[in-house]
Amino acid sequence: MSETAIIAGQGGLPVALAASLRERGKDFLVAELDGFPSAIPDGDPIRFRVERLVPFLDALADRGVRRVAFAGAIRRPALEPDLIDARSATLVPRLIGAFGSGDDALLREVIAIFEDFDFDVVGADTLAPELVPGAGILTGLPSEADRADAARAAEIVAELGRLDIGQGAVVAQGLCLAVETLPGTDAMLAFVAAHAGRLRPDPRGGRGVFYKAPKPGQDRRIDLPTLGPDTVREAAEAGLAGIVWEAGGAILLDRRQMQAEAEKRGLFLWARAR
Amino acid sequence: MSETAIIAGQGGLPVALAASLRERGKDFLVAELDGFPSAIPDGDPIRFRVERLVPFLDALADRGVRRVAFAGAIRRPALEPDLIDARSATLVPRLIGAFGSGDDALLREVIAIFEDFDFDVVGADTLAPELVPGAGILTGLPSEADRADAARAAEIVAELGRLDIGQGAVVAQGLCLAVETLPGTDAMLAFVAAHAGRLRPDPRGGRGVFYKAPKPGQDRRIDLPTLGPDTVREAAEAGLAGIVWEAGGAILLDRRQMQAEAEKRGLFLWARAR
Question: In which element (H, E) is residue A3 found?
Answer without folding.
Answer: none
